[in-house]
Amino acid sequence: MAWIRVDKVLDALFPPRCLLCGQRTGGPGPACAGCLGDLPWLDTGPDGLPACPPFKEVRCALAYVYPVDRLIAAAKFGRQLNVARGLGQLLDWRMPRVTQPPDAVVPVPLHWRREADRGFNQAEEIARSVCLSRGWPLRADLCRRVRSTPEQSALGAGERRENLRGAFALLHRQDAGRLHHVMLVDDVLTTGATAATLAAEFRAAGVPQLSLWTVAWTPSSAQAVTLKV
């Protein structure tokens, strides 16, 4: 008996369309060739962004400018699940091959009330796309956001750090402590306060290697990323 993949059937019935222009992509990707070429891709060199302890590697795919900002807003506030997953495909497409894959890919968690309001966690869907493509283990179960906090976008760097104090907790500290390399995934890197706060939990559990991948990087924060914990 010949098996037929469901995704192949769906692609035949509903050809993928570009997230930006709406035209058929001509392939499995989230955007057509023309729009892919017009996106504000970042070139951060072979080693990613400058060293940002505690992260061994920090990589971002795109500048947080138009139209990337609109796509991320559509995923976060417009409840467009397909856009969130498409952003994950763009991140995967841009990132290099990894010789030593992470033991766990951990999306930055949302508080349950905010996730319920949106219908999903955009960071988890971004991470899911990357993990499906690369065969990496998605571990959204390792941590949670235990304190609801105001949106970070309206806060300064110092206010962001204070806003996140005590916001995260590991659910399986012993499991986390047995991991060697944890990769955090988020939608946007601005000051790095969210990533640093979450990274502190994994460091306290004994994880020796941390890395960070995000879809976008805010250009105005290029000289002010503060990831030290």
Strand order of the largest sheet: 1-6-5-2
> Can you tell me the CATH topology of the largest domain?
Rossmann fold
Order of helices and strands: HHEHHEHHEHEHEHE
Task: Measure the end-to-end span.
Answer: 56 Å
Helical fraction equals: 25-40%
The largest pleated sheet is described as: 4 strands, parallel
Provide structural commentary:
The protein folds into two domains: 9-38, no CATH class; 40-221, Rossmann fold (3-Layer(aba) Sandwich), CATH 3.40.50. Helix content is 36%, strand content 16%. The strands form two sheets. A four-stranded parallel beta sheet has the order 1-6-5-2. A two-stranded antiparallel sheet has the order 3-4. It has 229 residues and is of the alpha/beta class. The relative contact order is 0.16. It has nine helices and six strands. The protein has helices at 6-13, 33-38, 68-76, 81-94, 112-118, 122-134, 157-163, 173-177, 193-205; strands at residues 55-63, 104-107, 143-145, 168-170, 181-189, 209-217.
